[in-house]
Write a structure and sequence with these properties.
With 336 residues, the chain is α/β, with parallel strands linked by helices. The protein contains eight helices and 25 strands.
């Protein structure tokens, strides 16, 4: 089995953080979003990973993946030169993934479940050409939606419908047995310029085409997931991941009040401050005479005399004086 991670998106909803880094390299709870995804996949039997990259900052994705996970995975990096949708992104992997069983994991989604649980759930289903992780939601028109027949086989899929046929939203994890049929469908969309929601080539539309051509797709249930492409859900994912860790209270945190859970990087300085709960501090950061809660503090950032919560502070940023709620990009200076 191969995994495909589409990680070429520009991440406009995370501006200003993604002005200087790809969305997958935004850090929370000790590692980049991509790192959490790869770590989760590393617990499965997947040995090969295809990462779809794009844009001027794609080298950050490539360098991080190789440096952090080259001993675990064999990597292929394929480029999506123009952002034309998720289906178009997956289609770029055809040359290295056609014919393989695939685990498709979106590059900005973190899950309560482990990928091992998804693979086990797939294996327990009747024989199929693939399966899709779904969750019942209250506003399905914001998502790709799945309609199922009486034996729970997928009968219809539609992306962000005005009148949803069900409340079952596609969660962003797919297990494809028949990748030949998938790439045939994606090729049909792209080569015939058949665009869907957002004027993009949608993976949902390719899966619907598979169903229309007689492929048997099924579903498995996914618990909560976190779309890390938005600041509020990025902070929520940070909280959930930190709940699973323990603070060691090492020397660099002494002399301040620490309210776990937090994640503290290397070579940080914390003096006369109250830190936590749910704070992720990247390497080299300095926090003095401050109160920081429910926040992500970037590499080499400096916070002095601030009181912040529900905030994202980028790398190499200086923030001095009173504050409350911030979303500050890299290499910024703010004085109150």
């Amino acid at each position: 089995m191969k995994a495909i991670i589409p990680a070429a998106g520009q991440g406009t909803r995370l501006y200003p953080q993604t002005h200087t880094k790809p969305k997958g390299m935004v850090r929370l709870a000790g590692k980049p979003i991509l790192g959490h995804i790869l770590q989760n996949i590393a617990e499965t039997n997947v040995e090969e990973v295809v990462v779809v990259v794009g844009g001027t900052m794609k080298d950050q994705i490539i360098e991080y993946s190789r440096s952090a996970f080259s001993e675990r995975f064999a990597f292929d990096f394929v480029e999506q030169e123009n952002a034309k949708g998720l289906g178009h992104s997956i289609y770029q992997a055809e040359s290295v993934a056609r014919g393989d069983e695939l685990l498709i994991a979106l590059g900005d989604m973190l899950f309560e479940n482990k990928f091992n649980a998804f693979l086990d759930a797939h294996d327990e289903l009747p024989e199929s050409d693939g399966s899709i992780g779904v969750k019942e939601v209250s506003e399905p028109n914001h998502y790709g939606v799945v309609e199922m027949n009486e034996d729970n086989a997928v009968s219809r899929l539609v992306e962000k419908p005005d009148d949803p046929p069900s409340n079952f939203a596609i969660s962003g994890v797919y297990i494809i047995e028949n990748s030949n049929a998938l790439f045939d469908a994606l090729g049909n969309l792209v080569n015939n310029d058949i665009r869907g929601a957002g004027n993009e080539f949608q993976l949902t539309d390719a899966l619907q085409m598979m169903v229309e051509q007689g492929c048997n797709l099924r579903t498995f249930e996914v618990e909560d997931w976190y779309d890390c492409g938005r600041p509020e859900t990025l902070l929520e994912a940070n909280r959930v991941l930190l709940e699973r860790t323990k603070t060691d209270g090492d020397e660099q945190l002494r002399g301040s009040v620490i309210i776990p859970p937090i994640d503290a990087g290397e070579n940080i300085t914390v003096k006369g401050s109250v830190i936590g709960p749910y704070v992720s501090i990247d390497n080299g950061a300095t926090i003095e005479q401050s109160i920081v809660a429910n926040s992500i503090v970037g590499q080499n950032a400096v916070l002095q005399g601030v009181n912040i919560s529900e905030s994202i502070v980028g790398s190499n940023t200086d923030v001095h004086g009173e504050a409350n709620n911030l979303n500050v990009g890299d290499n910024s200076s703010i004085y109150f």
